[in-house]
Specification:
- It is a single chain.
- With 364 residues, the chain is an alpha+beta fold.
- The chain has a 3-stranded antiparallel sheet with strand order 5-6-7, with no helix packed on it.
- β5 and β6 (140-143) form a beta hairpin.
- It has 10 helices and 10 strands.
Length: 364
């Protein structure tokens, strides 16, 4: 029996109706676009809560600065770097960069290293199989993107994974993540020109965050500091315990390391504000420009599709800028429309991987 050609009849080709049929059509006829969308995270300081009063009219809307069109699922990291390099070529400033979990799986030399070479500071989220211990260096442990003391208690090591597997509740997770911050290695100085950074042991320095018997100067300073339970080993203490500080070159843990502690308020604020702007523009362009409908671009070929899509995205940018300008007072005239502020910001300290903590009131 001859099997039908999927290009002529995807419905007959698919062994099942529904999802697999749609997937076949997507790979036969579709393209994907990787967008670079602007964002801002300046409304909240790194350690603080959302500001009580916010002037949202002064914040630029989410706009696309660059994009690439490519085959679905084909080299997402390479296409993202191509778009980001075009942004830097036009001298746009760099800053925090939030990407979805697909980019965490890329090889460091294809995405993570070029991103940092361009001057961006990436913020990651992780799949459940990427949580916990992600690497080690001289005894220090890379856990959920942050370097910690090798004697970090086990319940704090697997806090996020335990929540997602429903071994603990949200309140317990929040308490463990907050307690884990005392064990993190602290930056001693800014990274050098090669990207190497000097990290300080949490029990070292004049202001230790834990009390450790190995570094006796940390003992007796503050009775509220967590006491490190040192586990003796035949090889002795690891290098990070024997020294005050340690150098981490750029390539050490680069695939998962990030500057902000995963799950704490600064990370929640920055990551979700940036990611939400990307999803917002996707929905906006689909609603107003119908970019997902092939009938709006009746020319075949990736070059023609890219050219027509550029006009659609430019029109979407123009729509958003025009709506934003109407909220500003120009030439002494009052604004013609109120800025969009339908949703109150939630307190980032109440976020958990399983949703916000119940019974809390969002900040205004």
């Amino acid at each position: 029996m001859r099997r039908a050609d999927p290009a002529s009849d995807p419905q007959e080709y698919s062994p099942h109706n529904g999802k697999k049929t749609r997937k076949a059509k997507r790979y036969l006829y579709g393209f994907e676009a990787t967008l670079v969308v602007t964002g801002e995270t300046s409304t909240t300081p790194l350690g603080g809560r959302p500001a009580a009063t916010r002037d949202t009219s002064r914040h630029l809307p989410a706009l696309v600065l660059a994009f690439t069109v490519h085959k679905p699922g084909h080299d997402p990291a390479g296409n993202a770097i191509t778009a980001l390099r075009d942004v830097r070529r036009r001298n746009y400033p760099t800053g925090w960069l939030a990407a979805d979990r697909a980019y965490n799986a890329a090889l460091p030399e294809t995405f993570h290293i070029p991103v940092r070479d361009l001057g961006y500071r990436p913020i990651w989220d992780y799949r459940i199989d990427q949580l916990g211990i992600q690497g080690s260096h001289a005894g220090a442990l890379l856990i959920d993107g942050t370097w910690y003391c090798p004697n970090l208690p086990q319940p704090l090591t697997t806090a996020t994974a335990d929540l997602l597997t429903k071994k603990i509740d949200k309140h317990t997770w929040r308490a463990r993540v907050d307690a884990r911050a005392s064990y993190r290695l602290r930056p001693k100085a800014a990274p050098d020109h090669r990207g190497a950074r000097r990290m300080l042991c949490p029990a070292a320095g004049t202001h230790p965050t834990v009390a450790c018997p190995v570094k006796r100067r940390s003992l007796g300073r503050d009775p509220r500091l967590p006491l490190i339970d040192v586990t003796p080993t035949p090889a002795g203490h690891p290098e990070v315990c024997r020294r005050e500080s340690l150098t981490f070159t750029r390539d050490i843990g680069i695939r998962h390391w990030q500057e902000l502690d995963h799950g704490l308020a600064p990370w929640v604020h920055h990551y979700f504000r940036l990611r939400n702007r990307v999803e917002h523009f996707n929905g906006y362009a689909k609603d107003h420009e119908a970019i997902e409908r092939s009938r709006t671009r009746r020319i075949r070929g990736i070059a023609a599709q890219s050219l027509l899509l550029s006009f659609q995205i430019a029109h979407a940018n123009h729509r958003k800028l025009a709506a934003w300008l109407d909220t500003l007072q120009t030439s002494g005239l009052p604004d013609r429309r109120r800025p969009s502020n339908r949703h109150k910001l939630k307190n980032p300290r109440d976020w958990t991987p399983g949703g916000y903590l119940p019974g809390t009131t969002p900040d205004n």
